[in-house]
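User: Assemble these into one structure.

Assistant: Restating your components, then the assembled model:
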Amino acid sequence: MSLHQRRRQPRAEELSGIPWLAVLQPAERERAVSALLVGDAQAGDYVCRTGKSPTYWFGVVEGLLKMNIDSMDGASMTLVGLPPGGWFGEGTVVKREPYRYNVQAIRKSVVAGLHIDMFHWLLDHSIGFNRFVMSQLNERLGQFISAREIDRLSNPDLRVARSLAALFHPLLYPNVGEVLRITQQELAYLVGLSRQRVNEALSVLQRERAILVEYGGLRVLDLDALRHGAFSSKRL
DNA sequence: TCATTAAATTGTT
DNA sequence: AACAATTTAATGA
């Protein structure tokens, strides 16, 4: 709720973290920037909610968001994590239909929004922008397919590893550093395991030198191992 | 800036 | 789900 009250013009440093601005022509870019707003979201704030009609195409400048849906029993299911550099909602924006999911800040974040009219103007006028959106849709499709693969993995350590790797997708989320600030509880929601099991999996991944567990987050040491490595769930 | 306290997060059972 | 231990954030002198 507070996101829509504390809006401001994006700072230059924030603009540099918006990947699709670089593919625009100077004139297009100038127009796009004038239609960009950023806002701070506190942990727990909603960026968009199910049923509301889209006003903006959103992107993560800083922090971490999650996309979730409410299931029938009242509990909510986290579908995907959205790290810096990630833009989302193009599906609903294109169709001008209501959002089908909630997007909520996992921790204090900076969110950018491009007004829906400017989004459509760019689709009509910029080839670079069209390429970006097309690539975005394609990569996201790939991401959801691999998410289904991950769901069917039986080994919890592998599931955590692959889910972490997905958060470091270079095209969808170009601005993720090597440190990921996420609590083990949130990671548990994201992966669909208990916090205890995630804690254990993180220990395994650390023992295998793939990550470094820190308070309130973790550091990736070997992204390739997270993507492709095999981890034994055997205790030592 | 430092010390104290409250809150959040982790590791374990 | 509950617990203690640890880390961070907040507060005020």
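The mean pLDDT of chain A is 92.
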